[in-house]
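Dear colleague,

Thank you for sharing your sequence with our group. We've completed the structure prediction you requested, and as agreed, I am returning the results in plain text so they can be pasted directly into your records. Please verify that the sequence below matches your submission; if there's any discrepancy, let me know and we will rerun it promptly.
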Amino acid sequence: MRSFSKVMTIISVLPIFLLGCSKNVEELKPSGRLHLYDYEQTAAQLGIEIGEASDESSKQYKPLNFSPQHSMWFTVNDYPDILMNKTEEQFKDAVKECFLNAQSIGVNTVYVHVRAFGDAYYKSELFSSGLFMSGEIEYDPLEIMTDIAHELGMSLHAWINPMRCQSDVQMEEMDDSFTLKKWFSSDETRNKYISLIGDRWWLCPAYDEVREFIADGAAEIVRNYEVDGIHIDDYFYPTASTDFDAEAFAESSSNNLSEFRQEQCSLMVKAIYDAVKNENPDVLFGISPQGTLKGNNTQYADVQKWCSEAGYCDYIVPQIYFGLQNESAPFEETANLWKNLVTNSETELIIGICTYKMGKEDIYAGSGSDEWITDHSVSSKETSIVKNMGLGVALYSYDSTFCPSDENAGYMKKERSEIETLLS
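Please find the predicted structure tokens below.
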């Protein structure tokens, strides 16, 4: 059942055209169904208490969210085509057609990447502008995406990567006024609050100041934008090296590094959750971790705690990007494992499914490594399984679903049709 918390304008589905693809993918056709919903204009939905119209709480945004949630990820990799060097009108048109494409197959919620590398695709006092905000862009991408999603009756969750930051060169070029640059430049905080792992700098969650900064970043979005949720994915501890948080661990009372790091991750997640709820208790906070417990353990992500105890997340979306024949983590078995893991009644389980593996060898799937090559309907079959389990589904990603390679274009068109039948 779809649940609405905001009065919206009833719209009909417009003709849908594939956008942002340089490939020759056939034109998408509307399903013929009008996406019309019955909106009941009540005082509660408007956030108005009779006789209390002047109360500040009556002005607070009432988020638009769905149960079950049918979601799609829009990654930062979409921005070079639809945002970079584009006018405001060009960006608006691009976003609207992308969201309509997603809606045409039954998606009701979009996860839009607004901070991927310690940079912001919105107006922020805490983070520098995103890499693809070049071309003297003066408009606000997040504001536009939020407005368009709501015009279409869709929910929008702002997707951030809380710990992952810029490259060494980008950090050097960052304005000195930003906290990240100050920590990067200071001998006291460099390699403590922020450290270079591989080719990027990463925040360390083992310090109160860092967790507070990360939480403030989430709060800033909820405070300034009518987003319906804050969403983080599976970028937690970037390394198993003891150097990353050696000083913090030495100063702690713990003698177990794994347990210490799990606790720091949980403190960070809890800080984000509390920051979101302090700004607006109705805005959702969701986490998309690795698809297996082993994968989460390598990142010190205590998903068992987050799934079983209140106060960590409103929904969890494990990335079960595995085939039905995957030898080590078959899809249905793994999905059921998560269903048993989520014991907190306040946490909704949504299953993450991928489309990007179509036509590719799944090199870690063992005897099932050729499944995505020989079977082009894996994603729709998995969607059907999830629907039969009574759970929500999230599709990764927009690009692989609507802009597949030429050789997979026909197969993906059929998959979109099958998924639409299941979700709409």
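Summary note from our side: The first helix runs from residue 43 to 46.

Kind regards,
the structure core
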